[in-house]
């Protein structure tokens, strides 16, 4: 995200590129953030919501008194659900020198874990206690990482709708939280792929019961000889799979299912993050 002052009176020009191609443009009036023109009204409404929330946090600031041009660029397919919204909120907060979690909770209903991930270059454990995020960076470079893959299912899900549904089911009982936390620690410190898979299966079982949705492996990949874990909003975006055969056989299996976006662990999570 790049922010520049430009000539003119009371204008905010916004441009977003995805994979080096124009994706979104808009022009707003300042300081009130009136929408003058846009290529997508839904995205513009979300932007206005974030920027107005930021103004509420820093009401005395004159940051929106000058004309501005903001360029954002994204280097992955927007349908993948890899945190474009949380990265945007984090970047705006960083630009305005405000707490990204405070801004996030003004416009979102989630836990904030995606904001924690947006500004770290390490694996993290995340907890939210009394609205206070606790972030612990950890080493996670398992010996079996070459047996982990990420597959895009091609079904983009609305994360906010999924969060609202999760809350509606009142899933945050102390017992469930403890069980999920214990499983998380087991996965983070698993010494073998078998230990990792045992925890993965138990995690899927608990969430399946809460959400009243069968695990994706049961519904779509019952004949798969590894283990599959849904990521993000269940039923869409990516899954993580374990596989002890050849990568060629894995690709053949999923491509026969019409799924062609397949990443190795170290392609999805570059070595610089693991060091």
Describe this structure in words.
By secondary structure, the chain is α+β, with helices and mostly antiparallel strands. The chain folds into 2 domains: 2-118, no CATH class; 142-274, GHMP kinase, C-terminal domain (Alpha-Beta Plaits), CATH 3.30.70. It has helices spanning 41-57, 84-96, 100-107, 113-118, 159-168, 174-188, 193-211, 216-220, 247-256, 265-268, 271-274, and strands at residues 2-5, 11-18, 21-29, 34-38, 68-74, 124-129, 132-137, 148-152, 227-230, 238-242, 262-264. It has a 5-stranded mixed beta sheet with strand order 1-5-2-3-4, with helices on one face. A hairpin with a 2-residue loop joins strand 2 (11-18) and strand 3 (21-29). Helix 1 crosses helix 3, helix 2 crosses helix 3 (100-107) and helix 6 (174-188) runs antiparallel to helix 7. The protein is globular and about 60 Å long.
Q: What is this structure's SSE topology?
A:
Layout: E1 2-5, E2 11-18, E3 21-29, E4 34-38, H1 41-57, E5 68-74, H2 84-96, H3 100-107, H4 113-118, E6 124-129, E7 132-137, E8 148-152, H5 159-168, H6 174-188, H7 193-211, H8 216-220, E9 227-230, E10 238-242, H9 247-256, E11 262-264, H10 265-268, H11 271-274
Parallel strand pairs: 2-5
Antiparallel strand pairs: 1-5, 2-3, 3-4, 6-7, 8-10, 8-11, 9-10
Helix pairs in contact: 1-3, 2-3, 6-7
């Amino acid at each position: 995200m790049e922010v520049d002052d430009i000539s003119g009176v009371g204008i905010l020009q916004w441009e977003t590129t995805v994979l080096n191609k124009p994706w979104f443009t808009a022009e707003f009036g300042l300081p009130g953030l009136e929408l003058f023109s846009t290529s997508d009204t839904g995205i513009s409404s979300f932007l206005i919501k974030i920027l107005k929330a930021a103004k509420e946090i820093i009401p005395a600031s004159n940051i929106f008194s000058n004309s501005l041009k903001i360029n954002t660029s994204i280097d992955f397919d927007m349908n993948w659900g890899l945190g474009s919204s949380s990265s945007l909120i984090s970047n705006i907060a960083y630009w305005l020198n405000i707490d990204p979690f405070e801004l996030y909770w003004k416009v979102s209903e989630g836990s904030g874990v995606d904001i924690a991930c947006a500004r770290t270059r390490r694996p993290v454990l995340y907890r939210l206690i009394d609205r206070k995020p606790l972030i612990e960076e950890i080493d996670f470079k398992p010996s079996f990482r070459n047996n982990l893959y990420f597959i895009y299912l091609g079904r983009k899900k609305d994360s906010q709708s999924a969060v609202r549904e999760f809350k509606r089911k009142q899933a945050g009982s102390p017992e469930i939280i403890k069980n999920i936390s214990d499983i998380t620690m087991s996965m983070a410190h698993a010494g073998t792929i078998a230990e990792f898979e045992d925890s993965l299966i138990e995690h899927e079982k608990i969430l399946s019961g809460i959400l009243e949705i069968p695990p994706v492996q049961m519904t779509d990949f019952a004949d798969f000889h590894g283990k599959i874990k849904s990521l993000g909003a269940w039923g869409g975006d990516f899954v993580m799979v374990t596989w002890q055969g050849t990568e060629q056989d894995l690709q053949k299996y999923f491509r026969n299912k019409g799924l062609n976006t397949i990443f190795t662990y170290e392609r999805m999570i570059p070595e610089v993050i693991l060091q």
